[in-house]
Amino acid sequence: MAITTLILDLGDVLFHWSPQTKTAISPLTLKRILSTPTWFEYERGKISQDDCYQRISEQFAIDPSEVADAFTQAQDSLQCNEELVSAIRKLKAESDNTLQVYAMSNVSRPDYEVLRTKSADWSIFDRVFTSGAVGERKPNLGFYQHVLNATQAAPQSTIFVDDQSDNVLSARSVGLHGIIYENPPQVLRAIHNLIGDPVERGRAFLRENSKNLKSINSCNITFEENFTQLLILEATNQRDLVKYKDHPRIWNFFMGKRALSFPYDLDTTSLALTVTKRDKEIANSVMDEMLEYTNADGIIQA
């Protein structure tokens, strides 16, 4: 079924924050507080903010005012993930606004009120579901069922994005397409693969970047080489997409200056002779030459 619904987490997905404060509470301790049963009760609206801070102070031997100050500073650090918000806005527009987008977040009522004061395009959401309002929190299945019932979304047509693996596993258990958030490019690739046709997107990319399909290594250095161009030509049979340095007989992996210090190789030559459909006599002569490069076991050495 086609994807019709996208459900997104807020904290650490659409909003980033820093646990580093000017209080005596370390970032590690602040994150530990967020994983306590007391905090979970607060997120579900079962206890007030004052009660939560008082219990935390007793559990961690910290003054309640220090706890309150630390979380105020953490809230001040909240920043909208504009790259992701802009991409979601574009997805909705491309769907002629048929794509329904919801937020589903573990956040208390008081903290959500603070979050809504932050500069962000809240209009991308058709509705926001918070643990404080629902009385349930992720990864409890009741929260997911509440959202699905309220939105009438079909699980098999719904994508769920969260930075916590436990939350994503729960989403998958009720039939949603779960994606663990790492960064905007990664999550957008995953969303696009589910929403659209990845093959057609690949073809569109090749057309848009025809004759400029350069390689990039792990050090982010761009370079021109023949091998990838030949692979693209073999897969598409479209000569207008690629640009390579033609050789009459044997081929070099690289193009340009790099080819001057890199020997001609058997792999690129074999691929080139196959893809460019060279004369049979040339191919046979090259294969005869390849046989000169064998080891003691008779295996050709590239």
Q: In short, what is this structure?
A:
This protein has 14 helices and nine strands. With 302 residues, it is α/β, with parallel strands linked by helices.
The proportion of residues forming helix, as a percent range, comes to 40-55%
Mean of residue pLDDT values = 94
Briefly note the structural class of the backbone: alpha/beta
Q: Biggest sheet, in brief?
A: 5 strands, parallel
List keywords for this structure.
two-stranded antiparallel sheet, single chain, alpha/beta, five-stranded parallel sheet, 302 residues
What does this structure look like?
- There is one protein chain.
- The protein is an alpha/beta fold.
- The protein has helices at residues 27-33, 37-43, 49-60, 64-76, 82-94, 109-115, 131-134, 141-151, 165-173, 184-195, 198-208, 226-236, 266-275, 280-290; strands at 5-8, 15-16, 79-80, 100-105, 127-130, 158-162, 177-180, 215-216, 222-223.
- The strands form three sheets. It has a five-stranded parallel β-sheet, with helices on both faces. A two-stranded antiparallel sheet has the order 2-3. A two-stranded antiparallel sheet has the order 8-9.
- Helix 2 (37-43) packs antiparallel against helix 3 (49-60) and helix 3 (49-60) crosses helix 4.
